[in-house]
Amino acid sequence: MRRIRSVKRSVRFPVSATLLRRLAYASIVANVAIVVTGGAVRLTASGLGCPTWPRCTDESYHATAEMGVHGVIEYGNRLLTFVVGFIALATVLAVLEYRPRRKGLLGLAVAVFLGIPAQAALGGITVLTNLNPWVVGLHFLASMAVIAATYALWRRIKDPDGPAVPVVPAPLRALAAITTVVSVAVLVVGTWVTGSGPHAGDHGAARNGLDPEQISQVHADAVFLLIGLSVALVFAFRAVGAAGPARAAVVLVAVELSQGLVGFVQYFTHLPAMLVGAHMLGSCLVLLATLSVLWSTRERRPVDPAPTATPAEEPVAAIA
Predict the structure, then answer these.
(1) What confidence category does residue 317 fall into, taking pLDDT thresholds of 50, 70 and 90?
(2) DSSP secondary structure of the chain
(3) Max avg pLDDT among 48-62, 87-101, 116-130, 226-240
(4) Is residue 161 a contact partner of residue 103, using CB atoms and an 8 Å limit?
(5) What's the CA dihedral at 85, 86, 88, 93 to 10 degrees?
(6) pTM to 2 decimal places
(7) What's the longest Cα–Cα distance across the chain?
(8) Residue-level pLDDT at 160
(9) pLDDT class for 58, splitting at 50, 70, 90?
(10) Does the structure show a pLDDT above 70 at 294?
(11) Stretch 264-275: mean pLDDT
């Protein structure tokens, strides 16, 4: 009987490395999707479609027919949070079941999982503060932080467990790090631009008081700096023969130029909702492309297998 129980305890759900990678990738996609749907909430003026939080109304946790389409849009975005959280939880459980254990995966998976309710709580605070533009900006940046964590998890699953080895000289790694900092700064200033613009999420929501034209110019200047640094990375990586990092930098420049084009068109066409939504998606892609460049500057190599005993050594080990 004891033997049967021990066998039952040892039975585990088989988790492959492929499944882990797919779950991590699904988590990236889901978190990008919730940024886009969150943008749809704001762009359709549905930010207060559910006027309170965590309930949708004082009497109900879900939208009612009287609340109309705005309630449906806001409530639907809240429901998507549970889908994103379910994928993150499944990833944590898969990491726990995976054998052999992988160093660093559990911490990243848990960070992603805990980041989702934290981001949802910030979303609730935005509702309770009547869509304060500074809180709305923090809500967006929290989503960016979760996306960065999901990307780190996905890359860590893909990489072997050996030590990280630089593949480009230290000055170029520093340049990639500076580019990453500027990319984050572009995202931050972008939230200030949004907070000064017309798409407040509700017709009665306040704006942050910044001059839209001036802060848009600051944002554009930061974007020009980011593109310049990214182009410099392309040529620098090619100069040292780092093909992988050079490809990642080319992709980054292409994403930045596409995002910049959308940004300029939306500005000169008075911020149509569809283009603003596309620009939010582009922000996520710029962040992911930037992280790809940063990760490409080093690689992890497989752990060397433990040395095996030679035939001459084996009898001695057996006698010992």
Answers:
(1) very low
(2) -HHHHHHHHH------HHHHHHHHHHHHHHHHHHHHHHHHHHHTT-TTSS-SSSSSSSS-SS--GGGHHHHHHHHHHHHHHHHHHHHHHHHHHHHHH-SS--TTHHHHHHHHHHHHHHHHHHHHHHHHTTS-HHHHHHHHHHHHHHHHHHHHHHHHHHS-SSPEEESS-HHHHHHHHHHHHHHHHHHHHHHHHHHHSS--SSTT-------HHHHHHHHHHHHHHHHHHHHHHHHHHHHTT-HHHHHHHHHHHHHHHHHHHHHHHHHHTT--HHHHHHHHHHHHHHHHHHHHHHHHTEEE-PPPPPPPPPTTHHHHHHH-
(3) 226-240
(4) yes
(5) 140
(6) 0.87
(7) 84
(8) 83
(9) confident
(10) yes
(11) 85
Place of tokens 């990092």: 245
Residue type, 264: F
